[in-house]
Design goal:
Number of helices of chain A: 7
Distance between the termini of chain A: 21 Å
Order of helices and strands of chain A: HHHHHHH
Radius of gyration of chain B: 17 Å
Strand content of chain A: under 5%
Structural class of chain A: mainly alpha
Radius of gyration of chain A: 17 Å
Structural class of chain B: mainly alpha
Strand content of chain B: under 5%
Number of strands of chain B: 0
Shape of chain A: globular
Number of domains of chain B: 1
Oligomer: heterodimer
Helix content of chain B: 55-70%
Largest sheet of chain B: none
Shape of chain B: globular
Largest interface: A-B, 121 and 118 residues
Amino acid sequence: MFPLGIEPYLIGGVIVGIGVSLVYLMTGLHATQSSFFTTTLSWFSKRKHFQKESNIQERNWRLVLAIGLIIGALMHTLTLSLGGFWTTSVQLWRLALGGLLVGFGTRLSSGCTSGHGISGLASLSKISLCAVIVFMGVAVVTANIVQMLGVTP
Amino acid sequence: MNRQNVVVLVGGILFGFGLAYSGMTRQEIVLSFLQLKDLGLLFVMGGAAAITFFAINVAAKYIKTPILGGKFKPRRLPFSRNVIVGAVIFGVGWGLSGQCPGSAVASLGTGNLPVLVGIAAMFIGAYIRGLLDS
């Protein structure tokens, strides 16, 4: 069940929670991720879907949040990480096709692992709880089918 | 940079550091959770949600308004079919690739350049969502 122990997971999760909480208590903003794609596209597309006032208002801080994520992971890589820089061996077609579905699905769903899974659950949102159960269940089934079909890595 | 963005940057750095610390920036570790070989991811989401639960439901009630001004609003969405249909589609993509939006972006900071392909695809997916929203 826990071949790597639970400490790195729990400690990492608590650090994530402190980051999200800091942003919420200081600014009232929910530091969630998938809206970043929609708000960033508002710089490039004139379509009404992207030009909503909320997207224009949020696009700067959401870009700053994404840059923060990269800097934070880089800081970990340069300090505590044992192996240093790292590259996935998951095949590119899986990253591409999976990414397409993640981008479309999270925007249709108005949330992802952070929006529904962290901020939504913490807000005791029933619809977010439903979303988490659905995407986690579907992902478990998908990952096992992919593995059974012999697709590795 | 205004004060709000400084706070968001610091919060984002903590967020990214925590994701890397917990291994969520590695698609292989996420996939081993989804294959039910290592259930650690539950502690990442649970730990983060528990701290945030305290911030939203206890600390925010105590301080009443955000320190830099504005208003507190818990994250509540109206019930809609799209939330669930989208979650199904997201689940297929997550199970296929081991990537979700936050972990993919943070993963760039670990030097994981192939994930750029996944992030580009996420932008395309979000764009298609916009095309279908008339």
